[in-house]
Design a protein that fits this description.
Elements lengths: L2 H21 L6 E3 L3 E2 L13 E8 L7 E7 L4 E7 L7 E3 L24 E4 L5 E8 L7 E8 L7 E6 L13 E9 L7 E8 L11 E7 L10 E2 L11 E5 L2 E8 L18 E8 L10 E5 L6 E5 L4 E8 L6 E7 L9 E2 L11 E8 L5 E7 L25 E9 L10 E2 L5 E2 L16 E5 L2 E8 L11 E9 L9 H27 L19
Antiparallel strand pairs: 1-30, 2-30, 3-4, 4-5, 5-6, 7-8, 8-9, 9-10, 11-12, 12-13, 13-14, 15-16, 16-17, 17-18, 19-20, 20-21, 21-22, 23-24, 24-25, 25-26, 25-27, 28-29, 29-30
Helix pairs in contact: 1-2
């Protein structure tokens, strides 16, 4: 084989490999599938139900398998579901159990009205479910729990990271521990950090202030160190979110703004700003150094993500610095210096439509996906906005909300146009977002190379009497429709073989031009014999 032939064939093989790899990373336009009701497989559903606080997670080894955890607040049931078709359908699996706490996985009798659920997966495939639960008695305090499953949710080992102390007397709640978050140390997978919020309700006045707490495990979550106070600061609505990078432990949290002074003469003072921090510890949480990400009015907690390939932190949140709630994004190489916040929602500025609780996830191939609750299509916007009032999380909301998302393939430098994920407007005049409950847990999002799955609470099955609220999910795919049933690897191999064939044809053509065949000698005419008669 000549040198030129070998070179061309090598180029063809390389082209085949590149084609196979590139085709596995779908980069076409996003497409949202019809929403799926998570509890649909159950044969009997109570008329009145109130599902909230979803957490969703793609399996790291099988993108068709998705896990989902949430709470049913009417009964206090813990819930866990699994999909084996990328979120098209769901089946209920066992949820973590730890008596007496998991007899109520919602708020119980505590008056701090919110909840969070979080799912993570360890390097060995173990699923971790962080949630809050209450002792069943009327004075039961709220506790932070962790469930561990090595068989995709069929069975669990559950432990109380912070079991709330019992009330000191009847009718008095001593501790409310909730909204827990987890980080696994990549260099030491058995080492884990949990952080949460501790508040006090119906405590003999004056009640202790809200504070952040944390605990550490060195055996994969089987046992935990005694809860320790992180710092004497009010961390507001949510517990800090831990991230481990090298030998540094980061905590992303929101400091509540100080209350406005009352009974003052003259014009009302400007509302104090809320500060968002990335605090860092080099001694496993014993001491902390704060680094401010941003500050603004009515800011939500910062949701962090660390991109180990790019060596970059990302964070999203909402605030009303523009007198309307918008979703924002910032990034940092060191967790200390942060970029100028970038507005992610692309509705016109000044429309006074709100965007609530953005959440971020990243696919294995580095695509960033952000989703949030969005009011831009609400036909009944709040009438007070624009008359000296501004949008806020708890006031001046509209009636019908949607779920929107955007994506970035360049580390947040550019973002795709916003797209709506849900197929039916969510009526927030019913359900637990209203009726003096004000439980407004964020949506949940998880990403695979081919797309993302988003989970939210939905009231399409409810009315003013039943107040029914269910968890729904929507799958967003990128590139060609998955219904073709051709995998990226298969498409890449076919494309590569076609390219290899073309390369071989080109090689033969070039070789023949370089070494033309010798001229053929004239052939003698040979006449076929006539058939015998």
């Amino acid at each position: 084989m000549s040198a030129i032939l070998r070179r061309v064939l090598a180029a063809g093989v390389l082209g085949a490999m590149v084609g196979a790899c590139a085709s596995a990373d779908t980069k076409g336009p996003a497409k949202a599938a019809p929403a799926a009701q998570v509890n649909r497989a159950e044969k009997v559903l109570p008329l009145s139900r109130d599902e909230e606080g979803p957490a969703v997670l793609f399996d790291k080894d099988d993108p068709r398998t998705v896990y989902l955890a949430y709470s049913e607040m009417s009964t206090g049931a813990c819930r866990f579901a699994v999909s084996t078709d990328s979120g098209a359908t769901w089946r209920e699996e066992n949820a973590p159990v730890l008596d007496p706490f998991t007899k109520n996985c919602a708020m119980g009798y505590a008056t701090s009205q919110n909840l969070r659920t979080e799912l993570q997966q360890g390097p060995d495939g173990t699923i971790y479910d962080v949630f809050q639960a209450n002792a069943p008695d009327r004075n039961g305090s709220r506790s932070v729990l962790l469930g561990r499953s090595s068989d995709s949710g069929r069975s669990w080992q559950t432990v109380a990271i912070d079991p709330g102390r019992r009330a000191v007397e009847a009718g008095v709640e001593l501790e409310v521990n909730f909204e827990g978050h987890l980080a696994i140390d990549p260099a030491h997978p058995k080492r884990m950090y949990a952080m949460w919020r501790r508040s006090f309700n119906r405590y003999p006045a004056p009640a202790p202030p809200t504070r952040p707490y944390m605990s550490t495990s060195d055996d994969g979550g089987a046992t935990w160190s005694p809860p320790q106070l992180m710092f004497e600061r009010n961390n507001g609505f949510d517990g800090p979110r831990p991230v481990v990078v090298g030998d540094k432990l980061f905590a992303f949290w929101r400091e509540s703004a100080p209350p406005l002074p009352t009974n003052q003469d003259g014009p009302a003072p400007a509302p104090p700003v809320t500060r968002l921090f990335a605090s860092v510890s080099t001694d496993q949480g014993k001491t902390w150094t704060d680094h401010e990400i941003t500050n603004a009015n009515d800011a939500s907690e910062p949701i962090p993500l660390y991109d180990r390939d790019r060596g970059t932190f990302y964070v999203v949140w909402h605030d009303n610095r523009a007198n309307e709630l918008d979703a924002y994004f910032a990034s940092s190489k060191d967790g200390i210096t942060w970029t100028v916040p970038k507005r992610l929602n692309d509705d016109p500025v000044g429309t006074k439509y709100g965007q609530h609780y953005p959440q971020i996830s990243m696919s294995p191939n580095g695509r960033l996906d952000v989703a949030w609750y969005d009011w831009r299509e609400d036909p009944f916007p709040p009438s007070t906005v624009g008359n000296g009032q501004t949008l806020s999380l708890f006031s001046n909301r509209g009636k019908f909300v949607a779920v929107y998302m955007t994506s970035s393939r360049d580390g947040g430098a550019t973002w795709t146009p916003n797209m709506r994920v849900n197929d039916v407007p969510i009526d927030r005049t019913i359900g637990s977002w209203i009726n003096n409950i004000d439980v407004m847990a964020p949506i949940a999002i998880s990403s695979s190379n081919s797309g993302a799955i988003v989970a939210w609470s939905d009231t399409r099955n409810g009315n003013a009497i039943s107040q029914t609220q269910d968890i729904f999910t929507g799958t967003v795919t990128f590139g060609k429709d998955a219904s073709n049933r051709v995998t990226g690897f298969q498409a890449g191999v076919v494309g590569g073989l076609v390219g290899l064939g073309l390369s071989m044809c080109l090689a033969v053509f070039l070789v023949r031009r370089q070494n033309p065949p010798a001229p053929a000698h004239p052939a003698h005419s040979v006449r076929e014999p006539e058939p015998a008669t």
